[in-house]
Amino acid sequence: MSPMRSVMTRGSRSEGRLLSLLMVPVILVTLAPVARLLVEGISGETGFSASHLVPVLTAEATRIALAHSLVTAGLGTVISCLLGGAFAFLVALTDLRAKAALVFCLMIPMMIPPQITALAWTQVTGPSSVLLKTLGIAPPLGAPQPLYSPLGIALLLGIQHTSIVFLTLRAGLRAIPPEAVEAARAAGARGFRLWRQVVLPLSLPSLAAGTAMAFVTALGNFGIPAMLGIPARYSTLPTLIYQRLSGMGPSVLPEISVLALLIGAVALLGVIAHRLFLRRRAYGLIGLANRPLEISLGRARPLVETLLWGVILLILVLPLLALLATSLVPAYGVPLTLQTLTLEGWREALFHQPVTARAFANSFRLAGGAALVLMAVCLPLGWLMLRRPTRLTRCFDLLVDLPYALPGVVLAIACILLFLNLPFTERTLYGTAWIIFIAYLARFFPIMLRPVQAALAQLDPAMEEAAQSSGAALSRRLRTILLPLIAPAAAAGGILVFLTAFNELTVSALLWSSGTETLGVVIFNLDDSGETVMASAVSVSVVLVVVVLMGLIQLGARHLPKGVVPWQS
Amino acid sequence: MAELSLNRLGKTYPGSARAALADVTATIADGEFIALLGPSGCGKTTLLRLLAGFEGPTEGEIHVGGTLIASRRNLVPPEERNMGIVFQSYALWPHMSVARNIAYPLEVRGIAKPERSTRVAAALEMTGLSDFADRAPAALSGGQRQRVALARALVADPSAVLLDEPLANLDLALRGTMQEVFTGFHARTGATMVYVTHDQTEAMAMADRVAVMSEGRIRQFAAPEVLYNEPADDFVAGFVGDGAVLPALAEGPRGPGRAQVRVLGHSLEARARCAAPDRICARPEDITLSDTGPIRAEVRACTYQGGRFRLTLAAQGGARLIAFSRARARLGETLGLSLGRPWAYAGGAAHG
Lengths: 569, 352
Description:
heterodimer; A: mainly alpha; MetI-like fold; 0% strand; globular; B: Rossmann fold; 24% helix
């Protein structure tokens, strides 16, 4: 029998208190830059002032850009929900064949940087499309590019963020005990009724989470509206900020701070709406979800499979083919034939430019480091927020989406403001890889935290209480009980962080310096300087690296705990 | 193992006007099997969670073997209380095998591997799970899962084993078997067990003593037969066992343990411990049906219960009585009956 010593009591309590110290660096990294930005937005030359606030917020351009942002992000989220939702329900619940391959392909669009998505799609539809010219069906020169429109932006935003809805929803569907669905089938419910009355209500929390995340992501997307909206003179808030900054320089920092705060406020409203919705709709799920559901589609199965693969063809294969075609021509706009086919663009981009190899290494290190650090931090932090909620943690919970919801450009500026001069020292982080790393940590925090939080919240509290009664102190419970149980969610979050960071452009575009270029910067610089062919070549090689990486994980999936690989069925 | 003592324990949740637990005082002897019985919301689970340490009391104290483990100021966390707990949902860790689940409390205590294996093997043996040591919990049936949870709770030789409605998720036949598993385990290990349930048959069948709870208070804490034969108040009389509570008029004591009372207009002798009882608890066994019985009552319902019929009777003034009969009775029929030595008590006295 183990004696109960008061020394141990104190030891255990201080363990919990020690854990709350974690909030200090976490808040410093995630919220301090945004707070610094807030101060910049509302202060004039001499202390607090609305001198920037009022004129910017009442300007016609701001109103229009806000409306445009809401319309494109809203429509895009609808598209993400329809596509991602249909795929998630069908893959998680039915007896589709080749699910793994289907999911694998669905994940790829998310890993392609937005501006590359936009580039690839304009290669599919526009008058100078290499693919269409090669096929001889290109519209005449001077014909309008149909994607240079609000609908075009919304469509690509929707496709870009389909996997967010898909992953979140499917994770939620997996947590539904099969008995819940089988009980309804036994009760005579089938088909649409089964889905609408049982599956949908049970999966609403995760669908709502996915929707909120897709909306917030779409709202902050810069690449797509920049590529498609700027030619059509259709500004959203992120492109408005970018244009102001690149047009006028740092003198407009206070003004764009206000715009950034505006978009942050809109994102916050989305998050709060999601919270309120969840509060009324959270069900406790009873039972172990240990068997996957496989409802038979019957004779409709080949038709459904054809439809799903058709969607994959349209949103993945077609634009990638167009991108590949563009990377293989000697000059942009030349049709691809056996005579014109050349690897010159590839050779130049990959071997003659040392910056490309450096960018690959930088992006690997930054993205991998961010994923690992966030994984290590988010489990104890998620536990703290769930089991020891304080006003501080609740506040943090509400605000942690901000760095992610803000356009990357703005977070970058916030980081510059904060880290330009490190307090108490003469040193600066600006110009080093560390400022990019910190910005990544801040930006991708919610991508890691939310799945971990969801997994912790769904866990039967008795799991932890049983360990507690067994005598396990906090650190041991975290390590031996909670970590293995939420490992799938943590790994899914980690992979999402890595892939998002690996292709990230908007933060690093303002923070890079010679030697710390990221892949996004290299692609952007090539594209910006008119080297569409070389940009396409690097893009295709990035896509290849990502696909190979995903393939490696897929091969090792058998040895990983169940559910670690997000696209594995 | 050690004695558990609860001293004026109370718990009020923040923002709640009503106390979830109030003025609970009790002593649980070393090796005793105790059941906490009551309807849902009566505070029995709250009391269990206070014992386990998942929550702290707002009033009073808990001592284990003379050591203070919980009061408003001092709270030994659950991981240092050395209590085993069995949950309704089993709470087995799905990423660990059966043997690993059971070994976990020993691992945490830093017990060396050879001893650990011996003790886990013994626990598996005792719960009849030896063949399942390497299975995953998900591959077990409900009864087997609950036995793993029991083995895990007991393996580290805890001060007490707390069981939170452990059989609520199991089917009836399995419940009977598991009751035997629990009582057998209790007999062999001599562990102090605190068993929360809302099922009186379960509580009465297994426990040495049962604490009947309602609205956050312990109404009566006694052996099952005492609860049945001598309920302390109306709640216990109505909640435990079958029968009826009837108003009575005290006609004076008749010596130790006896009282003369007037019930339904008839004077009769009752068992009693107080001087002025004002009601009786008439169990079906106390009622003898006969054509010459002084009390007349009409049959309102008749259900067969295997070997006998259970009759619901309405006496004069509408008072309801429950009686057993060897023969079937017709609805509406009037029968004669007599009351033999029912339990008489003062209804308002137990909790004024």
